[in-house]
Amino acid sequence: MSDPWVALEPGADPRERLRMVRIAHQRFTSSGTFAEPVREVIAASWRRSARARVSPDSVSATVEIPDDDLGSYRAEHPLARVMPLLRELTGSFAHDGEHLLAVCDANARLMWVEGHPGARRKAGRMNFVPGARWAESAMGTNAPGTALTEDRPVQVFATEHFTRTVQQWTCAAAPVHDPHTGRLLGAVDITGGNRLAHPHSLAFVQAVARAAESQLALLAPVPERSGIAELTALGRDEALLLVGGKKLRLSRRHSEILVLLATHPEGMTGDELLCGLYEDESVTPVTLRAELARLRRVLGPDVVASRPYRFALPVESDITTVERRLGAGAISAAAASYAGPLLPGSRAPAVVRLRRRIAEGVRASLIARSDPDLLADWAHAPWGADDLAVWQALGAARPTPTVAARIAELESELAAPTGRSDRAPEAPPRVRSWQ
C-alpha cells in the first residue's frame, strides 16, 4: 500500500479486506498475535488499546462533559471560532452522504457531532455524542482518538476499530493545531459507512483541518488573561507558571514555594514556610530569605509579596481545580484534570502531605463512583499500576480475565515478605516532560 494512513488502496475489495481484518482482529483479541493484512498504524493502536485494558466488547463511550457544562466548555474552546467554517465545508458532504462531522478537544472528548439525523441516532447508541470521550484509552482504535495519539491524519476502516460495537463505521480524522503556538487543539472527524474507505475522504478531512488552522491564523490570538497567574504542578517535578504572558519553568524549590503559596491564599509566615519546605530543622530563616530573593529575581518584583508571603495577584492552579471539582462531585472532570502526583520528587513535608491528600481524594472518589472507565484510566497510569484497591474496584465493575490476573498478581506480591502496600504510590516512575 502506497500510503499507510489510508485504509484501502484504489482497487481493493472492501468486503474482502473487511473479512480478513475481522479474522486478524479476532486472532489478536484472543491470542495477542497478528496476521496480515493489518496496517502498522492499526497494529500499533491495537497494542495500545490492549495495554490500556480496553475491552473489545465495550458497548459505549463514557460521557465526561455533562449537558449542563457543555455549552460553556464549547464557548471557551478555541475551535469554537472556526465551527462556522467547518460546517460550511462539511455540511452538504455529511448530510448528503449520511455521514457525521465530529469535532473533539485534545483529550478526544467530542464537543460537536452534527450531520445526517439517522446517522446521529445510530451513533448515539454507542455514545458517539457531544461530551463523550473517544480516546484510545477509553474506546480503543478509532479515527479521532488515533489521530490525536499519532498527531497526524488517519483513516480507520470498519473492522480496524478495536471495539466491535464501532466496527460498523468507517471514519477519517485529522488533528488541528493552534497556528500561533503549535499546541494541539483537537481533531476534525468524518464518520459514516464503508463508502468513506477511500483516499479522497482522508484527503478531504485533512484539507478541512488545514483550512481551520488557516482561519485561526488569520484571527488574532486569544488574549492572555491579564493580572492572573496560572500554576501547573501535577504530574511534574518542575512546575510551570504562566504570568504576564510568559511561561516560566521553575526549579524544584521554587516550585515547592509557589505550590504552598497557591494553596494558602491568605499567606504564610516565614516560620510556616520554613516548616513546610525543609525536613531538616536546622535550616535557618536566612536560607529561606535567600531562596525567596532568588525567586523574586526570576518572577519579577510584583508576583510574590511579603508579610505574610503570598501571591500578589490572583492565582489559579491545577491543584485547586482538582480539589474544586472533587468538592462539587464532578468526579470525571476531577480525574481528567489530575495529571499525576503533585511534584512527585519533592520531599518537602507540606508538599508531601498535599500530594497525598489530592491523590487520595481522587482515588477514593473513583472507587466510590465505580465507573470502570475511570478506574481503568487510574489503574493503567504509572501511579496506579500497583494500586490493589483500585484494581479490586475495577475487577468488581469490569470482571475481565486480565483484570483478575492483575489482582491476583498484586495480592501475591502483597502477601510476600516484601509485598507492597495497596496505597496509591506516592510518586510515579516517570513524570510529564516540560512543554
Keywords:
DNA-binding; 17 helices; 435 residues; DNA binding; disordered C terminus; WH-like_DNA-bd_sf; transcription regulation; alpha+beta; Sig_transdc_resp-reg_C-effctor; 12% strand; Beta-Lactamase
Helix-strand layout with pairing:
Layout: H1 14-31, H2 40-51, H3 67-76, H4 83-96, E1 100-105, E2 110-115, H5 117-124, H6 136-139, H7 143-150, E3 154-157, E4 170-177, E5 184-192, H8 199-218, E6 229-232, E7 240-243, E8 246-249, H9 252-262, H10 270-277, H11 285-299, E9 304-305, E10 310-311, E11 315-317, H12 318-327, H13 331-337, H14 349-369, H15 372-379, H16 388-397, H17 401-415
Parallel strand pairs: 6-11
Antiparallel strand pairs: 1-2, 1-5, 3-4, 4-5, 6-7, 7-8, 9-10
Structure description:
By secondary structure, this protein is an alpha+beta fold. 46% of the residues lie in helices and 12% in strands. It is built from 17 helices and eleven strands. It has helices at residues 14-31, 40-51, 67-76, 83-96, 117-124, 136-139, 143-150, 199-218, 252-262, 270-277, 285-299, 318-327, 331-337, 349-369, 372-379, 388-397, 401-415, and strands at residues 100-105, 110-115, 154-157, 170-177, 184-192, 229-232, 240-243, 246-249, 304-305, 310-311, 315-317. A five-stranded antiparallel beta sheet has the order 2-1-5-4-3, with helices on both faces. A four-stranded mixed beta sheet has the order 8-7-6-11. A two-stranded antiparallel ribbon has the order 9-10. A hairpin with a 4-residue loop joins β9 (304-305) and β10. α12 (318-327) runs parallel beside α14 (349-369), α15 (372-379) packs antiparallel against α16 (388-397) and α16 runs antiparallel to α17 (401-415). The protein is globular, with a radius of gyration of 24 Å. The model is unreliable at 419-435 (pLDDT under 50).
